[in-house]
Structure formats: structure tokens, C-alpha cells
Sequence to fold (376 residues):
Amino acid sequence: MRIAVNARTLAYPSGGPKEYLLSLMRAMLDLDAGHDFTLFYSDPKDVGTFPEAEEIVLPTANRLAFDWLALPLTLRRRRFDAAFFPSSNMPPGIPCPAVVAMLDLGYFHPTLSMYRAADTCYMKFAIRYSARRAERLVAISDYTRRDVLRLTRARSEHVAVTHLACDPMYKAPVTDDALARFRSDRDLPQDFILYSGNVSPRKNLPVLLAAYARLADRTSCDLVLTGGLAWNEDFSSLTRQLGLNSRVHRLGHVPREHMPLLYRCAKALAFPSLFEGFGLPILEAQACGTPVVCANATALPEVAGRGALLVDPASIDAWTQALAQVLADDALRRTLITEGHANEARFTWERTARQTLASLEAAAGGEKTCLRRPGA
Fold:
């Protein structure tokens, strides 16, 4: 089967959609299932990411021009059995059966102010269109699948759940010397609570900052945050108002190959999001042996299992208490680390790759391909 993949999200500096596509494509290629993949990039620097596949650059920086014009035109000139769209939407004019990955439907929850108005209007239209037009949908969590069925006209039997998983690099051993060098190179504090993600309203960082402000005088741990600089002004203003300028460290974008080191340096991961379609940093931290405190909201309990301390996302008191507890209680930390490893092991990219290929095969109308490795 010949499969086209919209790989425009690889041009993003970081974020969940990019991580999803990188890990899923690597797993699907490693299955060696006999399918031929063609990846369409918007940036020439991405060529070579998957040398086993055909890689084509459509040099169009504007995402709408890439999705709505360049890619459909190219697909009409070539024959593909199916096309895969990994970012919750597909454009009109796709000439072959399509599978769309639904990452989350946060655009339909306006009270959370998660996205800018123009993006929200576009994506609400695009998601509803994709749910009607695509032959199959894959949702990255049970929560997201329920949202898809509730908010679109997708048919239940056409929506499969394909959970995400942790990249194997997070499980690789790391030496104490490597951690010490990384800490020094990044000028990290000796002890810190980590937030991993972008800085945006959906991430609920004001509650985390307010809780940390109550805790700061009682702990030597600073607060370290990753993520792009969008929504920067409100965040910086709030940090100053709380008197936390010297205790809060913003790293900006951290290369993905450095993230296992960052997790292992941290005393705990704090993940207070109001809304997540999955919540991959939870599994990444668990794989690295970092205790997790996360919000008891949307898909996060589904992902965290018993390997995290779950907290009401709206309660500053609850967050203050939970962070203090996970920093001070060694028995709790050991339990969270043990349960976190066991929980993270439930999710594998191999399983997700098999499930995604099954949806692509169903969309194309072909018979189920045997995905077992030779000799397995």
C-alpha cells in the first residue's frame, strides 16, 4: 500500500504534534509491514529524517497554502492508496481515502481561552469537515474519542483509539557525569520542580505559580519551565506580581534529545493543564523516574494511571499541598516512581503503529496486512 503523509508539523520547533509524528512514523517504518510511505515536508531541512521513506519538499511556508493548495495538487498528480493527516484536520480536495489523527478538540471549549480567535474559527470548521470526510479517524485517548463523537458527526465505528507512548530515548540510561554537565551547561538550580510544555492559557500556569509562591519560602526548590515564548507578557507580569522573578527559570525551547536529562535533574514534574488530549510529558517523566503531580482533568487521569498525584486543577490550596508533599515525603516519591514506571510501560509505539496502520488499511479498503516481523 502506498501511503502519503502530511509531515508539515515537523517544521515546528517543538510541541506535541511534532513529537507524535516523529515517534509514530519511526514505529510504523520499523514494523517493516511492506507499505511504501511518502512524506511531504514544508522545510528542506527535514529531508533525511526518515531515509527509508520517500521524502518530498513542497516549499510553502504558509500552512494554509501548504495544506489547501500544494499538497492536494501534488496528491492528484500521483497515485496513493491512503493519506494520513496527523494534526486533527485535512483539507478539501484530497483524492484518496484519508485517515485523520484527532489530537484534541480544545477549540470547542471556548471558556478555557486555549487558542487565539482566528485559529479557533478555522480549526472548528476543519475538524468538523475532517470528521465527515475522512474514511477513518484515530483519537489519541479515550477522552478525545468521546469528544470527537460528542462534538462532530463522526461515526462511532470509524473512530479508533491509538494512545501515544514514550519515545525509547527517555528509557536509555544516563550517567551522573552527563547529568552534572547538563545542569552546569543550562545553569540549572540544584533542586527544582519542572513544568514541561508551552506557555499558554490552557496550561493553567497561573495556578501553578500561585501555589509555588505559597511554597517558595518553605523549600529550596526553584520552578523551571520549558516552552515557547507565546503568551509571554501575561506570564512575566504574573511572575513579577508574585515576587518570583529570582525563583522561576524559563528555558524556552529545549531540544528533544536533551529532555531526558532535564526530567532526570528535576525533583518532580508539575503538570496543571486544564485540558489535554493526552499529556505526553507525564509518560516521559515517569519513564525517567521523576515523580509526577498532575491535574485531575480531561485525558490526564487516563494517561497517568496510578503513577501520579492527581490534583484539582482549579485549587491553589490543593496544588500547594501536593507539591509540598511530593517534595518532602520520600515514601510517596518512591511509590510514584515505581507506579510511574509500571504505568508508562502500558503504552508502546509499536502497538500504536499497528493500530494506525490498521485504520489506514481499512480506509483504503484493502485486506488486513500481517504486521508480524519475519520469524516473530
Residues 366-376 have pLDDT under 50 and may be disordered. The chain is about 40% helix and 15% strand. Residues 117-133 form the longest helix (17 residues).
